[in-house]
Amino acid sequence: MRGKLAMLFAVSFLLCSCSPEDLISKSFAATASTKLSSQFIGSWSLVSFTDKNEQGDTIHRYGEDAFGRIVYGVNGKMMVILMRSGRESQGEPDFFSYTGSYDIDEAAGAVTHHVEACNAPSWIGTDRVRTFEFLDEDRVALRPVEGTSELVWRREN
Questions:
Q1: Measured between alpha carbons, how far is residue 25 from residues 101, 112, 121 in Å?
Q2: E strands, the chain, where?
Q3: CA distances in angstroms from 30 to 9, 21, 35, 87, listed in the order given
Q4: pTM assigned to the model
Q5: Which residues of the chain have pLDDT under 70?
Q6: 124 strand-pairing partners
């Protein structure tokens, strides 16, 4: 199981890799120069992933012990992987991953993920906007503007 997960992460990381030209992208370098933007850079592990059902109850789509990792690169690239721990499906999808570029709108308090590759084909070529809230220097909450979910991440590095 860990071997398959490592392989999936490696493939996602390769999709997120960049050319030397990307590393010196002037547009992202200007964005990354702000303190807020630099707070995103690095690898984050999932602390919790909650959502609300039609009745307003809190649910855990990937289980209470879901696995997840999101990586924001200094080059403006990102990747995310989410999966149900143990992958015992309960009628819900048990794995989700995508990669692409990102930018941060400090005034709106939002990060936009520009999806380039995803295991859900309908997401490819779309922009996914998440509001963010830094809970402390090592935890950030991301909330998709198009839903009721909240993902809390803890800095790994």
A1: 12, 17, 28
A2: 42-52, 58-59, 67-72, 77-83, 95-105, 110-118, 127-136, 139-144, 150-155
A3: 29, 15, 11, 40
A4: 0.76
A5: 1-34, 87-93
A6: none
CA-to-CA dists, residue 77 to 64, 69, 98, angstroms: 28, 14, 11
The full set of domain ranges for the chain reads: 2-155
Q: pLDDT tens digits, residue range 30-52? A: 444 467 778 999 999 999 999 98
Q: Using an 8 Å Cβ cutoff, are 68 and 48 in contact?
A: no
Q: In CATH terms, is domain 2-155 a member of 3.30.70.330?
A: no
At which residue do the structure tokens 């999101």 appear? 70
3-state secondary structure of 24: coil
- Cα distance between residue 148 and residue 130, in whole Å: 11
User: Are the C-beta atoms of residues 111 and 76 closer than 8 Å to each other?
Assistant: no
d(Cα 104, Cα 112) in Å, to the nearest integer?
6
Return phi, psi of residue 146, to 5°.
-95, 15
First vs last C-alpha separation in the chain:
24
Provide the token pair at 133. 């809230």
Structure tokens, 45: 């592990």
